[in-house]
């Protein structure tokens, strides 16, 4: 199961268990149905072909060459996501870019995974920062830890895609440059396969 689902499923499982609380223990089928209902996944919506997303991964990002590219489509609990991921390296610096189509993910799961899209955050300390912002007209989240030289930028694009760039042993500016290497207009132009 891909990482998009992990924390959301844990949250939903806890909610369902609490909901069944004082009642007789439910069988697994009842629990799964309750969780799927709460997640509200839209089974009629299909993600775009992950191969088309993969084609948008840049050859270079943050001054580093791409060393690997992959993609896949996953279905779990009635929700299908498609994503592509590229790995970039130079010396001890490393960077990962992931683009995910979350259009079929229900609103509760989106909230569990991407609550920052509905928030305003601005935190800063001696060792780094965490803040929401706008990049190319889209809501974004930036985090950086200067002690460990690791950071991440996420953008929510077109109510459909999450673009993530994360790096280790790297300055924040290179993580931010990696986001700029994605052609957002081409991403928005991608269409899901016809039913």
Widest sheet: strand order? 1-2-3-4-9-8-7-6-5
> How many domains comprise the coordinates?
2
- Main pleated-sheet profile: 9 strands, antiparallel
Number of E strands: 9
Structural class: alpha+beta
Residues in helices, as a percent range = 25-40%
The DSSP helix count reads 6
Roughly what is the average pLDDT, rounded to an integer?
A: 82
User: What portion of the residues fall into strands of 2 or more residues?
Assistant: 35-45%
**End-to-end separation:** 24 Å
Radius of gyration: 18 Å
Shape: globular
Unreliable residue stretches = 1-12, 15-20
Task: Please sum up the structure shown.
The chain has 195 residues and is an alpha+beta fold. The chain has helices at residues 3-20, 28-39, 50-54, 107-113, 172-180, 184-189; strands at residues 60-61, 64-76, 79-90, 93-101, 122-125, 128-135, 138-145, 150-157, 161-168.
Structural notes for this entry:
- This protein is α+β, with helices and mostly antiparallel strands and 195 residues long.
- The chain folds into 2 domains: 3-39, no CATH class; 50-189, no CATH class.
- It has 6 helices and 9 strands.
- The chain has helices at 3-20, 28-39, 50-54, 107-113, 172-180, 184-189; strands spanning 60-61, 64-76, 79-90, 93-101, 122-125, 128-135, 138-145, 150-157, 161-168.
- Strands 1-2-3-4-9-8-7-6-5 form a 9-stranded antiparallel β-sheet.
- Helix 1 crosses helix 2 (28-39).
- The longest helix is centred in the first third of the chain and has 18 residues, at 3-20.
- It is globular and about 45 Å long.
